[in-house]
């Protein structure tokens, strides 16, 4: 059975000191947890920029570390930007691209997302490509829109002949920051469609689909057949909550194995 992928973005909630304390606590949990030790779960953590290099050291061997954004270019006179080349150089393996907050707060367009996705892939980083709809709709129509977003984001990389591993994070915009995630059947329908689409793309073989948007402990068991994992935010601000999700990975795998699924 393929491992479930469990990611956490800390956004800008923590100070540097609190980020390091959290990473230390997560590393302790992960090293002791059978879901991580036995390969049932893979972890990635995306802290704020100033904490990235320390997080790489603290989480070495138990979680991949990523950045929350990257520049479209690899070097040059771009004050305040951080390139994919530099992100990879310090030991990151993933980078978030196209989050709804980047679009809403900083005006990122589809063209920017295309360029940043290409920048990630040409530097050997797996883009955590965020897609989702603005308003709740028919799951089939939503799935088609999300597929469009994925294909658009990957179009520049494809045109350049690039391939690689992509993590598609399905995050309905209306569920980000909400009290609860989207309904399990809704998530399953959209993510199953996305997975089938990625499976039909040999240039991005092995890519995965995870669910974000107020994802929390207790959700994985309800959607496990149709997702490859979860993308957690504020509901993982306590290391104990992340431990609950890892416990759920084990119980979910056991249930699926018993049923002959996944």
TrEMBL record:
Keywords: Cytoplasm, Gluconeogenesis, Glycolysis, Isomerase. Its EC number is 5.3.1.1. It catalyses: D-glyceraldehyde 3-phosphate = dihydroxyacetone phosphate. GO terms for molecular function: isomerase activity. Coiled coil: none annotated. InterPro entries: Aldolase_TIM, TIM_sf, Triosephosphate_isomerase. Homodimer. Pathway: Carbohydrate biosynthesis; gluconeogenesis; Carbohydrate degradation; glycolysis; D-glyceraldehyde 3-phosphate from glycerone phosphate: step 1/1. Its main location: cytoplasm. It comes from Sinomonas terrae. This is Triosephosphate isomerase. PROSITE patterns: TIM_2.
